[in-house]
Design brief:
alpha+beta; five-stranded mixed sheet; 7 strands; 17% strand
C-alpha cells in the first residue's frame, strides 16, 4: 500500500511539473503572438472604416478580422491556462451563477436546438467562490455539451442538477449526446487534448475548468458510456474563504424553480 501511495504521489508530481513547464512555455508564446495580432486587428478595423474601400475589400477585411478575433480568443485561453491566478473570493449563489451562465449560452443553445433542464433544491446554501471563474467552468461544460449534441438526431437535452449536504455542493452537468470513447476518458482534462475538428476548439476548456475547481478546493470528474451521453460532476466544499472570516451558518438562497 505504501509503495502504491508513493507511486501515485510521484506521478502527481511529474504531472504537476509537466503542467508548470507547459504553462511557462505557453505564457511566453502567447505574449509573443499577442503583439502582432493586435496590429492585425487594429489595422483591419482602420482600413474597413475608410470610405474609399470597395465592398469586396471590406468583406475580405471582415474575414481577416474574424480570423484575428479567433486567434485573440485562443491567446486569451492560453494565458488563462498559464496564469492559474488565485480566486477572488466572494459569497455567491451557485444557482444564480448557473442561471447567468445559461443566459450567456442561450443563443448558441437555441441555434443548436438544445433543451436545458435545471433541477434545483428548494433551498440552497451560498458558496464562497470566484464567480467569474465558476461561470467560466459552467460555460465550458455547456459549450462541450451543445457542440457534442450537434452530432445526434432527435431531441437534444442538457440537464443541470444541484444538490448539497452539510459539507459539499454538487453540480452535475449531463447530456444525451454521443458520449466519450473509453480511451479518451483518462485524457479529457489534459491540456490541448481535443476530439473536435480543427478550428473548433483548443483543447484547453476542460483543463482550465479542472484547475479552477481544484483552486476552489473541489474536484471535477466525468462518467460516460460511448453512445449514451456524458456526465460531469463538480464537488465544491461549503466553506468560507480566510479573507471572509470564520465559517458560519450558510444563508439559504431564495427558492428557484426548476426550469426547462
Amino acid at each position: 500500500k505504501a509503495y502504491e501511495t508513493l507511486d501515485e504521489t510521484k506521478n502527481m508530481l511529474v504531472e504537476s511539473e509537466k503542467l508548470a513547464s507547459i504553462g511557462r512555455l505557453v505564457s511566453g508564446v502567447a505574449h509573443e503572438i499577442n503583439n502582432p495580432l493586435m496590429a492585425i486587428l487594429g489595422f483591419s478595423e482602420i482600413l474597413s472604416a475608410r470610405p474609399e474601400m470597395s465592398e469586396e475589400a471590406r468583406e475580405q477585411l471582415a474575414v481577416i478580422a474574424k480570423a484575428g478575433g479567433r486567434c485573440r480568443d485562443i491567446v486569451r485561453n492560453l494565458l488563462t491556462f498559464s496564469r492559474r491566478k488565485k480566486p477572488e473570493w466572494k459569497e455567491v449563489s451557485p444557482l444564480l451563477l448557473i442561471d447567468e451562465t445559461l443566459e450567456i449560452a442561450a443563443l448558441e443553445m437555441k441555434k443548436a436546438d438544445v433543451l436545458t433542464e435545471r433541477v434545483y433544491p428548494e433551498r440552497c446554501p451560498t458558496l464562497v467562490a470566484d464567480p467569474t471563474q465558476l461561470k467560466q467552468v459552467f460555460l465550458n461544460l455547456l459549450t462541450n455539451s451543445w457542440q457534442a449534441l450537434r452530432e445526434i438526431q432527435g431531441e437534444k437535452r442538457v440537464r443541470i442538477e444541484v444538490s448539497a449536504d452539510a459539507d459539499n455542493l454538487r453540480i452535475v452537468f449531463s447530456d444525451n449526446g454521443p458520449g466519450i470513447k473509453p480511451e479518451n476518458l483518462t485524457k479529457i482534462f489534459e491540456p490541448f487534448f481535443t476530439t473536435k475538428e480543427v478550428g473548433t476548439g483548443t483543447g484547453l476548456g476542460l483543463s482550465i475548468s479542472y484547475g479552477i475547481i481544484q483552486s476552489h478546493g473541489g474536484d471535477i470528474s466525468v462518467e460516460s458510456h460511448w453512445g449514451h451521453g456524458a456526465r460531469f460532476t463538480i464537488r465544491l466544499p461549503l466553506r468560507h474563504a480566510p479573507s471572509l472570516g470564520k465559517p458560519g451558518d450558510t444563508t439559504p438562497d431564495s427558492p428557484l424553480k426548476a426550469a426547462a
